[in-house]
Amino acid sequence: MNMTGDFDRGMTAGWSRLSATQQLTARGVAILFVCIVLAGVLGAARRTEQDAPMIFSGAMSLATLNFGDGKKAVAEVTDDLAEFEGRRARKLLEYSARFDVDVELAALIYDIALQERIDPEVGFRVVYAESRFNPRAISSAGAFGLAQVMPKTARIFDPDLAAEDLFDSEINLRIGFRYLRAMMDKYAGDLSLALLAYNRGPTRLQTLIDGGLDPRNGYASAVLEGYRPPSRVGAGANER
Questions:
Q1: Global confidence as pTM
Q2: What is the pLDDT of residues 29-54, one digit of tens each?
Q3: Same domain, yes or no, for 89 and 66?
């Protein structure tokens, strides 16, 4: 039994059940806790310097150096986390308004996309194209949920997964985005080919390519219409 995997899945599922506001509050408490712990450690270092001056003698003692650098590090980390959370909150409100979804669902899509190394903008576009954000959607081909994941595809990542499990938004998005990431890796970061493989299946796509046929069916171009990839995600989003 994979106790670590079960624990991780349990923690992820528990986190996803929190509202966006509760998640932001939890992150704030975590940041405060880290700062308190670091302040305690740094204060102990300064007290140690005072109690043992011979050990820390010299032009600049090690404890003083660590204390000064530590204060700067705490400030930098806190600022970075605050900036990240502020940017995340703004993006969630933007996506929520633009795609007409609640903030909790926007947070789920945004966070899982980042965890699976997918640009959140692409994640939202894929979910819109696949299900119009309906977690109970079922296609005529038998694909389920928000990202329209086929049960046989899901079992590549979790052999014990039942089809009904794909109605769980967190499970569905994680498998869907992980599969899209796998297709991006397969096609060397070419997002258009990855989307075609996601939509048509990699075997069908490769058959068309090997046969000298045009694999484009309008799916990738529809998803990527007007899309400008951020530099950190990489190129390969050519319209197809």
A1: 0.67
A2: 555 554 444 444 444 444 434 444 43
A3: yes
